[in-house]
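Feature request, filed as a ticket because there's no other form

It would be nice if the structure record came with a short human-readable summary line next to the tokens. Right now we just get the raw output. Example of a typical job, pasted below so the devs can see what we mean:
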Amino acid sequence: DETKWAKIDRRYPEMIKSTGGEKLEQLQKQLDDLSVRFTKKQSSAEADDNDSNYDAANRTIVPLSKDEFMSVVQWKFAKGKDRSAFLMKHLTKNSDAEIQDSISTAFEIADTIPMNSNDDDNDHNDSARIIKNSIKALTKLKGVGPATASAFLCLYRPDIFCFMDDEVIETFCGKRVYTLKVYVEMNEECRRVARTLGNDNNTWSVYRVGRALWTSAKLSAFGCDVDDADDDSKADDKEERTIGIVRSSAQTGADGHSSGGRKRRKRA
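Raw output as currently delivered:
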């Protein structure tokens, strides 16, 4: 039901605030601004509503500074499990030149996939190979694994890349494993859902599908009703109730993650 998916997706900003407060809200804004730059859009509102409607042929790859690189990494840590204590020392060793070289290579590879590809058998195989190679280009950077690489690629080509959220991994693959194989599997599932919901009509991108799945998982984890106060006139009350539920969950030791007991993985 596309209507239900859209209703859940509209609550993404609410879940961002509930998950990471003002810090994550600010990081999200920085990412939205980067996505606008990457895709040559006029506003972040257009990026949210029509993020599969743009033309790679009319776009140039813009430089990405090391500070901007780190802001994407910080967003990833703030939104999911914080692995900064282990990874930050590696990530900060990447130079501006190394970052730009890997970003440019990854984006150029990604742009060999045509917009709104029908993905017949041949297209599907080519797309899977290109997606792998795009991820690999970024994982050459120190401390960058498939999950971090996906954070950059979903900003540049939201029509073909989702972000590797833990909750999306669990939806399609069960166990949280941060490998290229798992990313390709979950991304393909998001692409399939996007096609079903209306990717061909430029309404659902692969990134938006993953975003809605993350939002749904957060709503469930915090005990929120997906249908609660969907009327915009009740938005403030809805947000206050959600924050209250989140705070209550935090006091009882629930934070929306089931990460206890997992071994630390080196690169995500």
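Something like this underneath would help us a lot:
The radius of gyration is 18 Å.
The chain is about 60% helix and 0% strand.
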